[in-house]
Write a structure and sequence with these properties.
Layout (H helix, E strand, L loop, with lengths): L5 H12 L5 H40 L5 E4 L5 H5 L4 E16 L2 E10 L4 E3 L1 H4 L4 E3 L20 E3 L5 E3 L9 E4 L6 E6 L1 E2 L23 E5 H6 L8 E14 L2 E15 L9 E4 L1 H8 L7 E6 L5 H8 L4 E4 L1 H43 L1 H9 L4 H32 L1 H8 L14 H27 L3 H8 L1
Parallel strand pairs: 3-14, 11-13
Antiparallel strand pairs: 1-15, 1-16, 2-3, 2-4, 2-12, 2-15, 4-10, 5-7, 6-8, 8-9, 11-14, 12-13
Helix pairs in contact: 1-10, 2-8, 2-10, 2-12, 8-10, 8-12, 9-13, 10-12
Length: 472
């Protein structure tokens, strides 16, 4: 037996069309259709704007924030780069300090990145333009990168490697396997860290600070707060109790004058804003011993940090971006969920209108239902008829909502400009996620199905003899 046979479709279409005696039920059905269309349209527009705002915040805030910082040695690099969602690692130094400018003192997070030594995950290296010339070594695995024993490693001429506008450092090595003359294909590539690679991945703010210059880059907001001038080099003093030393005068913190020469072009919502200096200067200021090395891990998506940290647990000491910005992004996510739930109520109200409309249709057609059952229509066929009648409003409303919602989302900025409304500085970020749209439509259909099922089931179980006697 076919699920939708012609007789079922014929009867369902007649009931959807309605009759002059059921104008009120038809009016309620139209209201339900419009309600679902408005709900779907509003959800698409709002979710696209909220998703765009979340992505902008993630880019502006987390680009300069270390996604994961791991205390490890160079020999651990192959394992770190083999973690899921990790695309690169770079030597890194970070510590808390107090920044003094005149009489103003504020807490800061001092960071230094060794931008000359970025280690890229092998399979990602192809995406950023790292490859080998014909006949030369190729990028594959890092497991033997540090196998320098037994006469094991030979330096590779950087000119044999092709990199798109990216310098290859001379530390590139190829391990020779088993003492033979055949070069193993396992390569360690160490390149200069780009600002943005060929795949569009943003590595954050980079500054050409030379070692020993003690230059500093700070956020524009902090620059204004401290009353410093961006046109001339301003001197500030950094004070840190990390690795402080005991002197005849007691515990003496580390102090050093730095020159503010650059501005970090990113948002910073933390209690201790980030300031960036040269990697060697930061290590020297924080008095980190040579044996204490840290690596900053770059993730494909910072929100996937859980999958990385679970594998680091118990093996390495680490920290991640959630320690600074976890609460902020939780609040953003909670606001997004709250807005979606509020707009879902429009769909729920419209679905109850479907319930009311279908209940009126079933109540007014009990005698026709009895006749249909008398001439042989099964309970299942009747159930299908009224499911089609009830779901028609949801399907039509969802389609109208899709057709109206996507163009409205794409042109939201133009509409706001025409109304003279300004929500954010610059262009309103819009990101239409197909997954979100599918979820919205499925939610609408499921809620409508739940409201449709009971009246349809009641109609299919009607007693034909009872209703025919009542009609006569």
């Amino acid at each position: 037996m076919r699920f939708y046979n012609p007789s079922v479709l014929f009867v369902a279409l007649r009931y959807i069309k309605g009759s002059k005696k059921q104008r009120f039920a038809s009016f309620v059905a139209v209201l339900a259709t419009l309600g679902i269309a408005i709900g779907v349209c509003a959800l698409i527009v709002v979710s696209s704007i909220m998703q765009g705002l979340q992505e902008r915040l993630k880019a502006n805030i987390l680009n300069d924030c270390a996604h994961v910082v791991v205390r490890a040695d160079n020999k651990n690099l192959p394992e770190l780069l083999g973690l899921p969602h990790v695309i690169g690692a770079v030597p890194f130094a970070q510590g808390e300090a107090m920044l003094q400018a005149g009489s103003d003192i504020t807490m800061v997070t001092l960071q230094g990145t060794d931008t000359n030594n970025l280690y890229v995950r092998p399979d990602y290296a192809v995406n950023v333009g790292l490859s080998s010339r014909r006949g030369g070594p190729r990028v594959s695995d890092l497991s033997s990168a540090y196998n320098t024993t037994n006469g094991g490693a030979a330096a590779v001429d950087p000119s044999t490697l092709v990199v798109d506008n990216t310098k290859v450092n001379e530390e590139v090595h190829i391990a020779i396997g088993n003492g033979s003359d055949t070069l193993d294909e396992e390569v360690l590539l160490c390149i200069q860290m780009p600002r943005v690679d060929r795949s569009g991945y943003n590595y954050g703010s980079l500054f050409p600070f030379s070692a020993g210059s003690y230059e500093l880059a700070i956020n524009y907001q902090m620059l204004m707060q401290l009353g410093l001038s961006s046109s001339s080099d301003a001197k500030v003093r950094l004070i840190s109790t990390q690795n402080a030393r005991y002197t005849p005068f007691g515990l003496t913190p580390v102090q050093r004058n730095f020159r503010v020469t650059d501005i970090i072009n990113s948002m910073d919502k933390s209690a201790a804003p980030t300031v960036i200096g040269n990697y060697s200067d930061v290590r020297r200021f924080l008095r980190l011993p040579p044996s204490e090395t840290y690596f900053r891990l770059f993730l494909e998506d910072p929100f996937l940090v859980d999958e990385v940290t679970t594998l680091l647990e118990g093996k390495y000491a680490y920290s991640d971006w959630r320690e600074r910005y976890g609460d902020f992004f939780k609040a953003v996510g909670l606001e997004k969920i709250t807005m979606s739930i509020m707009l879902c109520l429009i769909i729920v109200v419209a679905a109850f209108n479907i319930l009311s409309s279908l209940t009126m249709v079933v109540s007014s057609r009990v005698s026709e239902i009895a006749i249909l059952k008398t001439i042989g229509m099964t309970n299942r066929a009747l159930l299908e008829v009224f499911l089609i009648v009830g779901m028609s409003a949801s399907l039509i409303g969802s389609f109208i909502g899709l057709v109206a919602g996507i163009p409205l989302a794409l042109n939201a900025q133009s509409i706001l400009n025409a109304l003279g409304i300004s929500i954010v500085q610059g262009e309103l970020p819009i990101q239409i996620d197909s997954g979100n749209i599918i979820l919205i439509v499925l939610l609408c259909l499921v809620v409508s199905l739940l409201c449709t099922f009971y009246p349809a089931y009641y109609a299919s179980k009607a007693d034909p003899a009872k209703h025919l006697m009542a009609a006569s």
